[in-house]
Write a structure and sequence with these properties.
Layout: H1 4-13, E1 18-23, E2 26-29, H2 36-39, E3 42-45, E4 53-55, E5 59-60, H3 73-82, E6 90-95, H4 107-119, E7 126-130, E8 136-141, H5 147-155, H6 164-198, H7 204-216, H8 219-232, E9 238-240, E10 243-245, H9 248-252, H10 257-263, H11 268-280
Parallel strand pairs: 4-7
Antiparallel strand pairs: 1-5, 1-6, 2-3, 6-8, 7-8, 9-10
Helix pairs in contact: 4-6, 6-7, 6-8, 7-11
Amino acid sequence: MLHPNLRATIQELSSLSGSFYCLAPERLLGFSPDKLETYGNRWVPVNPLSGRSYSYSELNDTCRLFGYFRLSPLEIAERLSAEKLWQSATLVFCPDYFSSGDYGGSLVELSNLQTFLEDYKEAPGVYELYGSYGSAGLALDVRHITEEILEDLGALQSYPVRSEDHLCHLELEKEEEAWQSWAERDFRSALTEEALGLFSSASDAQLESLEEALEEAGSGALSELLRSLQERGNLYWETEATSRWCDTDRAAAELLPEDLEELLSAQPEALQLLSALRSVSQLEPLP
């Protein structure tokens, strides 16, 4: 007999955006290559509550325990209760707005997941899901969903962001990761090409010196220039799945000769070179 409170919880969850799955985890018993004769290659069921994270591959919309027949969430819970199987299987709800990965979701879902796991890190039946290509998500054991969690999930139906502050911080963190990974290199290359084009009438030796000066420009100054050029061109960082991306070529195309003075201000010889280049290119001298 299914407890009325659990029935009510499942019915309320059914009104929210998300999906139900049966979770019946198994683990390889005593696996050791040199002890196969002793232990054998045997999978055994484990209590779902013994773990805090599970693979997406362990979720099933049909369950081996019930002959893989498709059952409704209430039917699964009723069978688990009737056959006293809650120690080896459970019914979980995977809410929308928490799933992300390299090829799906966004930083909104990733932020929601991180803040939820932090807020409910001590709560039983809160499972982090993982899979290939950086995929991550949330599964909630229906037996341990509280009124607080239901209210939390319900709030996301009208506005799918749990914390604006956390999301903003995460975006900045991902922009820094992108800068370290590829954006600085790409922007420096695009900026150098644009700068050389501004002074195309200069000698090869002067252009080579300018290229060397740009190569020595500090990462911090380069990052500041990128932000300045983005503002000038009304350009912004964009979210792609759980990463941040910006068009460094378009930003570099906003470059003006005076931008180079600030970028290279820590290099006296480079400033002298810029004055010479402006003279050769018949541009107004630096103030």
